[in-house]
Amino acid sequence: MRTILPGEQISDKPVKMENGIIEDGKTYATVIGLLDEASKSFIPLETVWYPRRDDFVIGIVDSARNSVYSINLNSPFRGLIIGRRGESEMNIGDMMSASIRDVRRESDQIINILWRERKLFGGKLIAVRPSKVPRIIGKQNTMLKQLETGTKTTILIGLNGMIWLKGGDMPLAIKAINRIQDEAHVSGLTERIAKMLSEESK
Length: 202
Fold this sequence. Notes:
Elements: E1 2-4, E2 9-11, E3 20-23, E4 26-29, E5 32-36, E6 41-46, E7 56-65, E8 68-72, E9 78-82, E10 95-106, E11 109-120, E12 124-127, H1 133-137, H2 142-151, E13 154-157, E14 162-166, H3 170-182, H4 189-200
Parallel strand pairs: 9-11
Antiparallel strand pairs: 1-5, 2-4, 3-4, 5-6, 7-8, 7-10, 8-9, 10-11, 12-14, 13-14
């Protein structure tokens, strides 16, 4: 068995599979997993975020040079902003949100070209498992609205698993988010979170 990271080649042939993509006649993993080279079978270990056009993401600027910004998206996939269109320049360490305009592969590395970027001022970043993001948002944003109302905190959730919080009772919001992540598979979670926010906000 060999450990395979997202973006690594699984097969030199096109193989249709749930956790793989085909590019240039080859198959690449979209999640971390184990490759049984004898049987050529791939076993996914943990679902991770795989970038798609228009995905909303949150990241941190980790390099800036000649109006080209490299963005740490807390994933194996790097983000790039080419030419800053906003009013304020960004510096290394700045937090920002953006949408993915294009997904490219360069030297076996996934590169996300970002746009509609916005610098985030203040607040706090936390990371969750990307596979739990839909549960934290909820159907029609119900869980997110409940979190913001119950804690008076502004919350932005990136599909890459990065969450930005500002204002209100941030410690309670983070506690609730962590509970949602841990209990995402349990029924009745919305009601339990509502009860928790009601009791602890008092």
